[in-house]
Write a structure and sequence with these properties.
With about 160 residues, the protein is α+β, with helices and mostly antiparallel strands. The protein has two domains: about 35 residues, no CATH class; about 120 residues, OB fold (Dihydrolipoamide Acetyltransferase, E2P) (Beta Barrel), CATH 2.40.50. Helices cover about 35% and strands about 35% of the residues. It has a five-stranded mixed β-barrel with strand order 1-2-3-5-4. A hairpin with a 5-residue loop joins strand 4 and strand 5. The radius of gyration is 19 Å and the shape is globular.
């Protein structure tokens, strides 16, 4: 008979959690960040740089419907709402131009996601609003494409 403690360790090893912990610890010792391309599904595009999705950690372990913000680009806003101060002084005309660009950026992200399988490389922390932070990639036709690069090429980002 398997003891509960042994079941616990077998479950951790089977789920890949131990591997993630070892890689994380070793990378800290070496001073490099580990890179894990995590598959994401059930994607809801919030705007050009934020999605909600299920993150698959491996071994059947998932993070259900997480809000994830891209860290390597800043897309135009698709709604007349932003918490940061530079936008508080926008005129109506400036907001209208911002929202138009934002809706185009949001559509571009939706099209990219629909063109292949979506992955994310997560950062080790969350932002001030509790969102996961990461870099998005689309796998299609045997190649991995950075969403940031595609959006920048299309003029859908500020930076």
């Amino acid at each position: 008979m398997i003891e509960p403690k042994e079941k616990f360790w077998n479950a951790l090893i089977g789920s890949g959690v131990i591997l993630l912990l070892v890689v994380g610890f070793a990378s800290r010792l070496l001073g490099v960040e580990p890179v894990a391309y995590l598959e994401i599904s059930e994607v809801e595009v919030i705007d050009g740089d934020t999605i909600k999705a299920v993150v698959h950690l491996g071994g059947g372990v998932n993070l259900d419907k997480q809000s994830i913000r891209a860290v390597n680009y800043d897309a135009w806003e698709s709604r007349r709402f932003r918490r940061s101060k530079p936008f508080s002084s926008f005129t109506d005309q400036q907001w209208e131009a911002e929202v138009i660009k934002g809706k185009v950026a949001t559509n571009a992200v939706s099209e990219l996601i629909a063109s292949g399988k979506l992955f994310v490389v997560l950062e080790s922390k969350r932002d001030t609003y509790g969102r996961l932070l990461g870099r998005f990639y689309v796998y299609r036709n045997g190649n991995l494409f950075g969403v940031a690069d595609e959006l920048k090429r299309g003029g859908h980002t500020r930076r």
